[in-house]
Amino acid sequence: MIVQELVFYAFSLVAVLAAGMVISVRNPVYAVLFLVLTFFSAAAIWILLEAEFLAIVLVLVYVGAVMVLFLFVVMMLDVNIDPLKEGFIRYLPVALLVAATMATELLMVILSKGRFGADAFPVPAPHPAGYSNTRALGELLYTNYLLPFEVAGVILLVAIIAAIALSLRHRPGVRKQDPAKQVRARRDESVRLVKMKSEKPQGG
Q1: Number of domains the chain is built from
Q2: Which residues form the domain of 95?
Q3: Distance between CA 96 and CA 23 in Å, rounded?
Q4: How many C-beta atoms surround the C-beta of residue 12 within 10 A?
Q5: Does the residue 177 lie in any domain?
Q6: Residue 185 domain flag
Q7: Cβ atoms within 10 A of the Cβ of 49, count?
């Protein structure tokens, strides 16, 4: 049990330090890489809590897809971060106040258990050999939480449609495809047959 607690504290420390580097490092590429390290540390903590499915999904979806997309966008846009840091000192007192408030709330929750140890972070009971947390998560998600799951899906669909509608711009002078017009295209409109008389090669 002591080894498990040491591993938990080690990954937690790495996650906190990496998260701090995400918001403090100057290079955006390094910030994305530190965010990847934060996700890996969180996935390791989930594995300690016997939530292997969530850990694998976190690595595959966020690290394998979202973070790679963020990295390519940051590298391609070449964002100028100097204007973004002009008001850093001005808002630093407010940021420190918010951070201190959040830290105080977390400490109050942790210390309310009595002591910072096994009682504060109870170890889950061991499961039988044939137990599958993926199946248990699916049964719980599609039975007890079916309505919130469907509502969340509808909200995400509306958000996707709204993002597409807001970002859609019709710029004049730019060629674009019209799928409906392409489907209605006929051969007579696309191909023209030209009849030409055959010619003899010169000197033949």
Answers
A1: 3
A2: 88-126
A3: 13
A4: 14
A5: no
A6: no
A7: 14
For the chain, give the mean pLDDT.
80
Which has the closest alpha carbon to 131: 54, 56, 58, 50? 50
Round to whole Å and give the CA distance between 7 and 26. 30
Q: Which percentage of the chain shows pLDDT scores above 70?
A: 84
Query: Does residue 194 fall inside a structural domain?
Result: no
Rounded to an integer, what distance in angstroms lies between the CA atom of residue 17 and that of residue 13? 6
Alpha-carbon gap, residue 39 to 71, rounded angstroms: 15
Specify whether 1 is located in the same domain as 66: yes
pLDDT in tens, 42-89: 999 988 887 888 888 888 888 888 888 877 877 777 666 666 666 667
Look at residues 54, 67, 65 and name the one whose alpha carbon lies nearest to residue 18: 67
Query: H/E/C letters for each residue in 73-99?
Result: HHHHHCCCCCHHHCCCCCCHHHHHHHH
Q: Both 156 and 122 in a single domain?
A: no
Pair 103, 151 in one domain:
no
Cα of 14 vs its chain's centroid, Å: 20
In a domain, 174, yes or no: no
Q: What CATH number corresponds to the domain at position 30?
A: 1.20.120.1200
